[in-house]
Amino acid sequence: MTTAFLLFTFLWHLVKAIDDATANSSISDLCIQMPGMPGCALRTFCDTSPSSLAQPYCQPISLLGDICLNDMPRMASCQPYNESCSLNTTCQSLYPPVPQLPTSLKLAQNIYSICSAMTMDGCSTCQLTSASTYSDCNMLGVYAGMCKVMPGMTQCSEYVAMCSASLKGSSLCTSSASDAPPEMKMYFHTGIVEYVLFQGWVPRTTVQYGFTLLGCFILAIIYEGFLALHIVLDTYIGTTKDQNKSLQSFPTSASQSTNSSTPIQPARSKARFAWPWTQMVLRGLLRLINATLAYALMLIAMTYNVGLFFGVVLGLAVGSMATTGILKAIQHNSYVTARDEELCC
């Protein structure tokens, strides 16, 4: 018993060559100088919620190791750790740094690479260039947020390794259903959490997803309705022009008329086609609405969400069926009008 106690005391003093107070003081000094280091982000997580990381990763010595062992070992405030723990296997086994934690340099490079390829939330938070090796922003938090959305990006390999090795249950690697960002999958998939056109339109429950499907379905029907309206307007304009030309070919004076007592005047035709700019503006407005709806439906389909995709295409099918009768009637009336004019003139 005495031998075991002496051995325990020896190991305890060996490990505690740097105590918690010294470790906390060193971390505070380091994070004042370079607050964007991943170790500083982890300390913030631990201060906010001590259970946010698995033990012993929230211990002060472990947090100091996140900075001084792998990230910034040459900083002056790392001297106590370097002297007591860097080469001390017992210290590192009891208070290990987070495995696979990316360094500040790697975070800066990955964030810049992601933001160069596409615009994502966080790109404006960390202003980085190709030569950047560090930023004072919360680089670990920004990087984790990006990789939650698109974990399949090549730049997220360090994130996947970190979460698999040590932080799988932390908020850096997982999110609750109420605040989880939609994952951007560039292939057909199922699920309910998706960005639908706007950042604030994110269904998170089955009911919300059901209303979203209904909205997409109705939007597709409305698009088909406006498309039919555009065709109706074009048909009306064409018919009006034909009637105008036909009436203009009639005699306009008593000497030209076959019946000199009843001259024919095209006044009615001029009244019907007196405002061509009105028709042009109306056509342009309908085209604007049609294009807006068409691209909105395309963007919804490009979420690759199976439910949303079929909500769009089924809405287009139903809308097309609903407007077919109207278009056929318009075309028939146009044909009858043209035929009557030919017979009469």
UniProtKB/TrEMBL annotation:
GO molecular function, one term: copper ion transmembrane transporter activity
TM regions (residue ranges): 209-233, 280-302, 308-330
Annotated Gene Ontology cellular component terms: membrane
Keyword set, alphabetical order: Copper, Copper transport, Ion transport, Membrane, Signal, Transmembrane, Transmembrane helix, Transport
Compartment list: Membrane
Signal peptide (from-to): 1-17
Pfam families given in the database record: Ctr
UniProt xrefs under InterPro entries: Cop_transporter
Membrane topology: Multi-pass membrane protein
Protein family membership: Belongs to the copper transporter (Ctr) (TC 1.A.56) family. SLC31A subfamily.
Name of the featured protein: Copper transport protein
